[in-house]
Amino acid sequence: MNASEVLRIVDSLHREKNIEKEVVFRAIESALVSAARKHFGDEADIEFIIDRENGQIAGRNGQEELDYEEVIGRIGAQTAKQVIIQKVREAERDSQIIEFNEIINDIVTGTVHRNEGRVTTVTLGGIEAILPRSEQIPGESHQPNERIRALVTEVKPQGSRVKIVLSRTRPKMVQRLFETEIPEIADGVISINAISREPGYRSKVAVSSIDSKVDCVGACVGVRGNRIKMVIDELAGERIDIVRYDEDPQVMIPNSLQPAEVSEVILCQMLGRAIVLVREDQLSLAIGKRGQNVRLASKLCGWDIEIMTQEELETQIDRAVQGFCSLDGVADELANRLVGEGYLSYDDLSVIEPDDLMEMGELTAEQVDHIVNQAEARAEEAERVAEEEKRKRRAAQKTAEVEAAAAAKAQADVAAAEASVEAAAAAKAQADVAATETSVESNVTESAESADSEESGVPSESVGQEDSP
Length: 469
What we know:
Distance between the termini: 144 Å
Radius of gyration: 44 Å
Oligomer: single chain
CATH superfamily of the domain at 3-101: NusA, N-terminal domain
Largest sheet: 5 strands, antiparallel
């Protein structure tokens, strides 16, 4: 391996593998040292230096100069080759790690290579990445050679290779798609302030604009919804709600619960809870299917949102005041203050900060501990009673289902019996009709024969008999 060949190898690896030239030079030097130690022993003080300008290789063993071609030999050359390959692979891996670390939380486009169990392998140029089932949108499937967009979430070394994990379920995926499809966001005129998401079902995106002339919600939706449609299509039809962001929770919480109409918002700062009052006809809309709307709104705003009507709130307040007053050491005034701060159950009271309760009721630490212990005990009892009621409801529901099934079976049996009787009666009636028709046809035939005999002058009894001698 002469000097020009060394430079050619270094330049080739630098261009093809995107590896720094210095890394390749060091790999070759390390390979030569490893090969020489095969000959001189591991304890030998061996050093090889490659001139970066002309590719000349100089080596020494202590103070003795070495001719690397003579020293390495056939076995050493094989060792050097293996070391160079290993070092190049490690350098290539490190280069890929640096490259993909720079695009973590960015979207990449790849091609589905194969599906293996719960993992989909995606080809990104010459590198394979994985898209685990847990990071795929529920209900979607990917076929080989399909083009796919996903978010880079994790990059780490794995042996001599690099492991890249992709995702299509993270809220960041929605943000990056918005930045791609909506120029105002990419330009910084419109900002995405918060995102909450349940992949494959629904997302809520809070946006704001620094330019009063730009409608942030309208710009994200686009003319006839063309912009948001591109995002929805990429997310397999996931519903997306775009709401106007506001720093004031009194404004932001109603916005996040859209399309439901909110009557009033009561903020409980100590609990981080927001009690939202709605009309009866808006209750199910505000809560959403399986609580989805209120759950996403809570994540979007950072408040624990509880939806109820005015009547339900009054009932809970009365129940909470009575319950708190029944605790030893809780006066009426303290009970009302607790309710005013949003504590509406024993569960709420069991997690109150002791210092807050001491300040509210001017209590000692011992009194606070006593009150909290009572609240915890009653909360556990209430939970036990609730579980028992739930168990009874499940048992009653199961019994009702069994009875309904038995009733349905009995009804089916009756219907089958009635159908059988009707079929038998119909068959008998049909048989009777057939017999009657046969009898009528027989009588008609006999009458016809009798008429023929009378016309010929031969008695009907002698028809077909010979004359007697």
